[in-house]
Specification:
Number of domains of chain A: 2
Number of strands of chain A: 13
Strand content of chain A: 25-35%
Helix content of chain B: 55-70%
Strand order of the largest sheet of chain A: 6-7-8-3-9-10
Radius of gyration of chain B: 27 Å
CATH topology of the largest domain in chain A: Rossmann fold
Radius of gyration of chain A: 23 Å
Largest sheet of chain A: 6 strands, mixed
Order of helices and strands of chain A: EEEHEEHEHHHEHEHEEHEEHEH
Helix content of chain A: 25-40%
Order of helices and strands of chain B: HHEHEHEHEHHHHHHHH
Distance between the termini of chain B: 20 Å
CATH class of the largest domain in chain A: Alpha Beta
CATH architecture of the largest domain in chain A: 3-Layer(aba) Sandwich
Number of domains of chain B: 2
Number of strands of chain B: 4
Oligomer: heterodimer
Distance between the termini of chain A: 36 Å
Largest interface: A-B, 27 and 22 residues
CATH superfamily of the largest domain in chain A: P-loop containing nucleotide triphosphate hydrolases
Largest sheet of chain B: 4 strands, mixed
Structural class of chain B: mainly alpha
Strand order of the largest sheet of chain B: 2-1-3-4
Number of helices of chain B: 13
Strand content of chain B: 5-15%
Shape of chain A: globular
């Protein structure tokens, strides 16, 4: 069984009177991708900061790779890679200069910045100043910076937020490659589809608490409902919607009635999405 | 403390500082400008006391007075006398009344008007008043009642005239330090505004190393230029080691102020808005050297007073350790306190 790379025990953080993170506990196994979902202000970024040693917890403990983050912050930070939500590159420097700077800070003696840039889809742009890059290119460079030290734990905060589909896909592929390499990935996002595609497990966070944590499949099984959605011809010649909930004792009779009594134009089955589940659990959306 | 990390950060900061075209240009231009100002200022002092005299009556003791170091030039009218004083041709203007002799003969006190420009030091006013008394005594054999109050601030420089450009030297040195203060504050403010400081702080470096690196960058930039300036203008003559230490402390001081400014600034404009008042306040003591007597004792509460005073006394009067040790100690105290406060508030902002 894989060991835990991240362990949060009763983790708490307050900004004055406001409890941003309220006694949360979870663990992430080595080589696992954990999706951390929640709306803005749910406490995701605060949790992210405590796990990466940027904030000292007001209560509880965060352990990474068996080390207490607060007590071994520099050691922990030598083993992690962090990609921030907002662009924070040295824009007056070139991409290669940015990468070389961080490689030196990580104490790396041999480092091939060009190879890394090629890997994130920025070949031949290494000597250009970052200020000339598009948003997607900057985000890919941020991802490159976060993986340059081959981190054992990779933290990504909204890595594809506001990006075009090509850039998003590139970044998702890199995340999967990093997992293949053996890295544990902690992915903070409010993009359900991305979390569903990438994550081995997802945690839903709302108002500082974790309200659900499981694999996307299990969450859908436990909290979602499958349904048949049909469009039937109406009396006035238009189309009307019909929905039949699956997996109930009444389902077979309802399906029979639909086909015998109505003129079905289209029909398809539909699974619950993570967003549906989040709304059913918290009564609010993810944005 | 990891010196490899600190070295990497310092190299990065120096590189970024000179990539900021505005500050790089400002630094180079200001430096050249200060050197030019220094060399275009007079390098010698006219030790002659030039006095304009308007006398409607013939008073040979006054009009024919041409002692060594004293030049009296008679003018035709009171208006011409005032004009000469305003234009700087005379240090003082003396206007004798038409009825001077009659009043003195009748035991009355005649009124002699002395004209000065506002920037004439008090000691010069007193000197002129004394000369008039002497001349009146020579002319009439009676003492003349002229009221004069004396107030001398700072080192008494009577008998030790300093060329204007050498008076300017501490002012220019501190201006160089100030420009670097703004540069460092902007560098730090940008680091926080753009979030790059957070990217740095998730690498295996401590916040202590970050501050040491920033301190070395700021102090290095300011100290390097101030030393170069003093070398070029011959400011190390009096006591090179004292001046080096003083400039180093001055560089640490402005680095501390830069930490303070960057902790309350969000962008370049706010850096500028906070730097200008700091700039003006810290510059004030320099004016006490340019215009002795113009500023009172309160300037001693400003940390830059001790910086300026030591540079002035050592470079211009050859003062030694025994004369300036207390000021050096006070300057060190200010450096420690301001840098500590700067680090404390900036650390809170970074966190």
């Amino acid at each position: 069984m894989a060991r835990d790379a991240i362990v949060a025990e009763d983790l708490t953080y307050r900004y004055g009177e406001l409890i941003a993170v309220d006694h949360i506990s979870f663990n992430v196994a080595e080589s696992e991708i954990m999706g951390f979902l929640g709306p803005n202000g749910a406490g995701k970024t605060t949790t992210f900061k405590m796990l990466t040693g940027q904030l000292k917890p007001k209560g509880g403990q965060a352990r990474l790779l068996g080390m207490d983050v607060t007590k071994n912050v520099e050691k922990v930070q030598g083993e992690i890679g962090v990609c921030f939500e907002t662009t924070n590159l040295y824009e007056q420097m070139s991409a290669l200069e940015n990468l070389n700077l961080f490689a030196r800070l990580f104490g790396m003696r041999s480092f091939d910045g060009n190879a890394l840039l090629e890997r994130v889809g920025l070949p031949g742009r290494g000597k250009d100043r970052v200020e000339t890059y598009s948003k997607g290119m900057k985000q890919r460079l941020m991802v490159a910076r976060s993986i340059l030290n081959s981190p054992r734990v990779l933290f990504l905060d909204e890595p594809t937020n506001g990006l075009d589909p090509t850039s998003s896909e590139k970044i998702r592929n890199i995340i999967l490659e990093e997992r293949e390499r053996g890295a544990t990935v902690f992915l903070t996002t409010h993009d359900m589809l991305e979390a569903d595609k990438l994550s081995d497990r997802v945690a839903f966070m709302n108002q500082g608490k974790i309200v659900a944590l499981d694999t996307p499949h299990q969450l859908k099984q436990q909290h979602g409902k499958r349904a048949l959605k049909a469009k039937v011809a109406g009396d006035d010649g238009g189309l009307e919607d019909r929905e039949i909930t699956l997996d109930t004792p009444e389902t077979p009779e309802a399906v029979r009635k639909l086909f015998s009594q109505e003129k079905v134009v289209t029909i398809h089955s539909e699974e619950a999405t993570l967003e549906d589940i989040f709304i059913s659990l918290t009564g609010r959306g993810l944005v | 403390m990891n010196w490899r990390i600190i070295g990497t950060l310092v190299a990065k900061d120096f590189s970024l500082f000179f990539r900021n075209k505005l500050f790089a240009a400002l630094t180079a231009l200001a430096f050249v400008f200060y050197i030019i100002i220094y060399f275009v200022m007079p390098g010698t002092v006219n030790e002659n006391l030039e006095i304009g005299l308007y006398s409607p009556v013939a008073l040979p003791a006054f009009t024919e007075m041409q002692e060594e170091g004293l030049e009296v030039e008679t003018v035709a009218s009171e208006a011409a006398l005032k004009e000469g004083v305003i234009e700087g041709r005379y240090l003082a203007g003396v206007s004798l009344p038409a009825d001077m002799m009659e009043k003195m003969a009748s035991q009355q006190k005649p009124t002699i008007i002395l004209y000065f420009t506002p920037d004439v030091p008090q000691e010069m006013k007193d000197t002129v008043a004394l000369i008039i008394r002497e001349l009146a005594y020579l002319q009439t054999g009676q003492p003349l009642n002229i009221e004069a109050t004396e107030e001398i601030l700072g080192p008494d420089m009577s008998g030790t005239p300093i060329p204007p450009r050498d008076r300017l030297r501490p002012l220019l040195a501190i201006m160089i330090l100030m420009v670097e203060m703004m540069g460092l504050a902007n560098l730090l403010s940008e680091e926080m505004e753009r979030g790059t400081v957070h990217a740095l702080l998730v690498t295996p470096m401590s916040i202590k190393e970050l501050f040491v690196a920033k301190g070395i960058t700021g102090t290095g930039l300011a100290f390097g230029q101030a030393v170069l300036f003093m070398l070029l203008v011959g400011g190390f003559g009096g006591g090179p080691l004292i001046i080096l230490i003083t400039l180093l402390l001055g560089a640490v001081l402005v680095t501390g102020v830069a930490f303070l400014i960057s902790s309350v600034s969000k962008d370049f404009m706010s850096v500028l808005a906070w730097s200008i008042p700091a700039f003006i306040i810290l510059m004030v003591p320099s004016f006490s050297i340019l215009f002795p007597g113009a500023i009172t004792n309160w300037i001693k509460i400003l940390p830059s007073y001790y910086l300026v005073d030591i540079v002035h006394r050592v470079a211009n009067f050859g003062s030694g350790w025994g004369d300036i040790w207390l000021n050096l100690l006070i300057l060190l105290g200010f450096c420690v306190v301001i840098t500590w406060i700067g680090i404390y508030v900036l650390r809170r902002r970074v966190r």
